[in-house]
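Reviewers of the previous submission asked for a worked example of the structure-prediction workflow described in the proposal, so we include one complete record here. The input consisted solely of the amino acid sequence. No template or homolog information was supplied to the procedure at any stage.
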Amino acid sequence: MKKIITIFILLIAFKASAQNYDHILNYVFNGTPTNGVKIKTNIPFTPTTQMPTVIIEGNNFGTTETIGLIINWYTYSSANDFYNDPSGFYFYNATVSSFGSFTPNIYLASENGKVIIYIDRKDYYQRFTVRAYSQGMGEQPGWFQGWTTADEPNNGVKSILVPYKNRFSGDILLSGNGIWNSSGSVGIGTTTPNAKLAVNGNIRAKEVKVENANWPDYVFKKNYDLPSLKFTEQLIKEKGHLPGIPSAADVKANGVDLGEMNAKLLQKIEELTLYLIEIKKEVETLKRDKK
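From that input alone, the workflow returned the following structure tokens.
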């Protein structure tokens, strides 16, 4: 009786542990692959039979990158003969997340009826280990045994590029006194951003595009109230700056909105153009009167 109970317990333990598959594969290559790394699994490419989580961990010596990849997928079919027409089989809801610094292109494909995982990188002195978890879809323990690798091109069918998806919660601290906080604001050189992007330092860019819906073409409308030069002169004497333009104190305290300031400066240029046109007309009138 004790022997039967012991066997029963061992069977339960095996069934439970079969959901987690450790040390499926160890990969070590002291060189640089010609094509990439093809992981040949023994998981059949058949619909609704699998929802595995495959974890790849290791390092790239040549690029000093830590390898940490979690790959998930499901298989489905669009064929009328749902389970028996391989032409309709496809990978569904495949994703990969990285918990290291290694983010290569990862492909899933079917080769000889089995799923392959293709790492599309040629890295010097790479090594990693593979483990997996899979349960609830009728997966068999044998599917997670006997995996191999090969330095071959990805010639499989139904090949897909697996999209990366990572999501972070809370504040993410960045090196160099920076933050990406929980409200979605980014601070560079500051951990207290007061805008969606706050930079305490210099910014260098090839192009900056600022959207502005209030571009001052209205200055050239007939009903535009062009300030007189006398009014402008008086305001300059009183305030020390052009009308509608912030003072030096305002700029020091609050900064400058690039889009708004460009629009204001253009407004002043257009007003100056109108003044020049008026002056030219007056000069031409004086010349005619003088003759």
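The helical segments are 2-17, 229-239, 248-254, 258-290. We consider this example representative of the routine output the project will generate in years two and three.
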